[in-house]
Amino acid sequence: MIELKQLEKSYGTVQALKGLSLKVPRGCLYGLLGPNGAGKTTTLRILCTLLAPDSGTVSVAGLNALSDPRAVRLELGYVAQEVAIDKILTGRELLQLQGDLYHLRSSDRDGRIAELIDCLGMQDWIDRRCGTYSGGMRRRIDLASGLLHQPQLLVLDEPTVGLDIESRSAIWQLLRELRAQGTTVLLSSHYLEEVEALADRMAIIDDGRVIAEGTPDQLKQQLGGDRVTLRVKEFSDDREAEQVRQLLQGVDGVRQVVVNRVQGFSLNLVVENEAVVPRLREQLDGAQLPVFALAHSRPSLDDVYLQATGRTLMDAELAVAGQRDSKLERKKAMR
Amino acid sequence: MTSPVAAVTTRAAEQGPLVDLVQETLALTRRLFLQLLRRPSTLIAGILQPLIWLVLFGALFSNAPEGLLPGGMSYGRFLGAGVIVFTAFSGALNAGLPVMFDREFGFLNRLLVAPLRSRSSIVLASVIYITSLSLLQSLAIMATAALLGYGWPGVSGLVLVLFTLLLLVFAFTALSLGLAFALPGHIELIAVIFVANLPLLFASTALAPLSFMPDWLGWLAALNPLTFAIEPIRAAYAGPLDLGAVLLDAPYGTVSGYGCLTVLMVVTVGLFLMIRPLLNRKLA
């Protein structure tokens, strides 16, 4: 459905995309995961024909987005991150405007709007001016305008940022239904849970490149091993933790044991599979050591991210937090 | 919950490019008018301001000695043409502001991601909006001027007035829309409008005839496009319409009514040709 090849884009001296390539299969709910500033929005803006890349190719539904942007615009709905809305118009008038820009016949247009009002639960406020809407309402209006012309492809840029839990799950629900009905959905997010909960396939973007791609399960399996967190007492000291570490290091199936000094000298283990867990208990019993707590888990996307980039997503967010200039970003988005 | 993509409607069959173009242009124009109706302060101020000019400025020079103005015209009648042109001109100069705000707030992106037949419809909608607004304001001023006893141009005169205003409004709307895409933000655009507005008024024949002015100002006024709009309208007010007559005794020679209109047309077409590449690039 989407094929991006070797996209490069610079803003002045800042290189936002450094040869990004991506393939999204038809009918797939695809997640782009990455910290702020990784190049997600730039990628989506190029895809939606709002921005021309410095080099690379963009193909959507078999159409060349760079040479035939209008054909691509007909096929896709775009829900941008910063919701630009005309405060003076009512929600219905905004949707009517949108419908006219997509050249729906007025009877079709109004029927379709009624359908979306019903489906997104907008009856109570659709005829109020947009200026009075809450964040969740605005996002729903935006979703409705993205869906108005029944596109094959819906592109959403961080659709649930800053939303309450209820609106968020309503949007998740809607995206799942769209996928079930055959619409291809591409969303960007810097929430691990969101991508994990929704996406059939995903790509991790960092520093203008795709650094990992696959289904969430594949990515986790590639990483391999299960995670075990273990404590012998609620608070161990340095010496005791080290003693336990050496004891468990030798257990069959244990790949790695690390003393986590930040979390009260608990032990973080990477093990081959679940079967290793009882062996850990036996070993501790044999040494007359109690088990205060033991948690076993599959690797998370955060672990995948950590493996791919050498830092956690949260660290990456913090690193760019200070460098981001919202005014500059708005300028970049200006035409 | 009904399905989000239920096929109650199928995608509209192709309507043809021209129908599409009309549909998108009308939709964009409708939005501008809805904004105006719901925030009518622009409209009210736009009509009040020239009326205040007309009444106060007209009163300021009402005791001017007779025979001071060409053809023994009263100052009120003389001023009428100037205020009409100035109003249309400032309205057109502001045309870029809504577009600039759409750029800044990202609403333009919403328009650009839609499969518009031609992005000229965004520009066209602004032109239609500003033109109707300016003509409405001008008619209000003309009616008030008539009530104040400053005369009425008659039917053929009215046609000439509207035609002249159209040319002027097209020219400066084009300029303003060009600036709205060329300048970085609304602060800069407002600054340019502010700097251009009053000086262009004073350096024209809106408030005083050329014969009043020192040579250097006379030169400026005789080159100012506003002057070429003011003089035909003033002539329409002065009496029987004769576009062949000399309307402007400029330092570089005399200009007839036809000459004035030709200059305006050249300015309008010239500005459109100048702005076109910029708009094409920005809206590509």
Walk me through what this model shows.
Chain B: It is found in: Cell membrane; Membrane. Chain B: GO terms for molecular function: ABC-type transporter activity. Chain B: InterPro entries: ABC2_TM, ABC2_TM_bact-type, ABC_2_transport, T7SS_ABC-Transporter. Chain B: Keywords: Cell membrane, Membrane, Transmembrane, Transmembrane helix, Transport. Chain B: One of its GO terms (cellular component) is ATP-binding cassette (ABC) transporter complex. Chain A folds into 2 domains: 2-220 and 308-333, Rossmann fold (3-Layer(aba) Sandwich), CATH 3.40.50.300; 225-298, Alpha-Beta Plaits. The model of chain A has no long low-confidence stretch (mean pLDDT 85). With 335 residues, chain A is of the alpha/beta class. Chain A is built from 13 helices and 14 strands. The two termini of chain A are 27 Å apart. Chain A has helices spanning 40-47, 69-75, 91-101, 106-119, 135-147, 165-180, 192-198, 216-223, 238-249, 276-286, 301-309, 313-321, 326-333, and strands at residues 2-11, 14-24, 29-33, 55-60, 63-64, 76-79, 153-157, 184-189, 201-206, 209-214, 226-231, 254-260, 266-271, 293-297. In chain A, the strands form 3 sheets. A 6-stranded mixed β-sheet of chain A has the order 6-7-8-3-9-10, sandwiched between helices. In chain A, strands 2-1-4-5 form a 4-stranded antiparallel β-sheet, with helices on one face. In chain A, a hairpin with a 5-residue loop joins strand 12 and strand 13. Helices cover 40% and strands 25% of the residues of chain A. Chain B is mostly helical and 284 residues long. Chain B has one domain. Chain B is 70% helix and 3% strand. Chain B is built from 11 helices and 2 strands. Chain B has a two-stranded antiparallel sheet with strand order 1-2. In chain B, a hairpin with a 2-residue loop joins strand 1 (246-250) and strand 2. The longest helix of chain B is centred in the middle third of the chain and has 29 residues, at 154-182. Chain B is elongated, with a radius of gyration of 21 Å. Classes of the chains: A alpha/beta (335), B mainly alpha (284). Chains A and B meet through helix 2, helix 3, helix 4, helix 6 and helix 13 of A and helix 1, helix 4 and helix 5 of B.
